[in-house]
Amino acid sequence: MPFVRVSYLENQYESEQLTQISRVVMQVLIQHFDVPEDDCFQVFHSHKASEFVYSRNYLNIERSDGLIYFQITLKSGRSTEKKTSFYSKLAELLSNELKIRKEDVFVMLIETEFEDWTFGNGEAQMLQRMTKKVFFSKIEETVKEK
Description:
Blueprint: E1 3-9, H1 15-33, E2 42-47, E3 68-75, H2 80-98, E4 105-112, H3 125-145
Parallel strand pairs: 1-2, 3-4
Antiparallel strand pairs: 1-3
Helix pairs in contact: 1-2
Protein name: Tautomerase family protein
Pfam family, one: Tautomerase_2
InterPro entries: Tauto_MSAD, Tautomerase/MIF_sf
């Protein structure tokens, strides 16, 4: 259930590149966070230079105008190891497949809970889904005990 926002300086990436970036992000989400293949919600934003402000060398990382921000909102619970592996693989694939500099891949994970999401119809589908799983697992435990 991740929601991915991708921000970049206008005229830095072509439409075809954005399609490839979308595919790579989804591939890494599936591999590292076990996201279902059809759970794809992404928004791409290009910004004018006056709207895209960043430090060119914060933490001794040399950034260029090719900087691309990935803000990924997702369910909490992933380990530090999974997160760091995700960051590494995303930067590696974007570098290898699209020639985006690893230094220009900036990722923020924003963790939420099931009750923080609705996928439409004004319902908390993930919360309802988890409530059903807990209910049925309790029934299974009761049946096993008998």
